[in-house]
Design a protein that fits this description.
By secondary structure, the protein is α/β, with parallel strands linked by helices. It has two domains: about 90 residues, no CATH class; about 50 residues. The chain has six helices and five strands. Strands 4-3-2-1-5 form a five-stranded mixed beta sheet, with helices on both faces. This is Ribosomal protein S6.
């Protein structure tokens, strides 16, 4: 799974329409979030650092939710934006989540094992556990989404 990392608001207009997962590494304004939804109509998940997440208004959280966007608190640890615009959650992590789910593990156990495997936020792991990103071929953005 690829998460597009955006380090400043000037990058939002240049994002691909097909982006499904975005991490905003800056504190977005309401205008930035409206622009993001308009620029990326296929977005399913928006990750924000804890400080930015906690500063969002109830209105914006409701707006994102009603737009079908799952808001996740977390970071992209170890990512170097100047080398790559995407933070990649490797397929082996997604496979491990599926494997643990099939084994009947609790959400807490899955979060514990996956965070030991790779530094990913608990919110992101929960989202992956309950989302379409665990389906085959999910590492590439959909090109013809209606």
């Amino acid at each position: 799974m690829r998460i597009r990392v955006v380090t400043n608001r000037d990058e939002i207009p240049s994002l691909e329409q097909e982006e499904r997962a975005v991490h905003l590494a800056f504190r977005p304004s309401d205008k930035d979030l409206f622009s993001l939804v308009k620029t990326c109509p296929s977005i399913e998940i928006l990750q924000l650092p804890a400080s930015s997440y906690d500063g969002l208004s109830k209105f914006i959280k409701m707006y994102l939710s009603s737009s079908g966007i799952h808001l996740v608190k977390g970071d992209v640890s170890g990512h170097w934006h100047d080398l790559n615009n995407y933070f990649v959650i490797p397929s082996y992590v997604l496979e491990k989540i599926k494997e643990l789910e099939v084994q009947g593990r609790t959400e807490e156990e899955i979060i514990g094992e996956v965070t030991n495997l790779r530094k990913i936020s608990p919110d992101m792991i929960l989202h992956l556990l309950h989302s379409s990103f665990l389906s085959p071929g999910s590492e590439r953005p959909e090109m013809n989404r209606v």
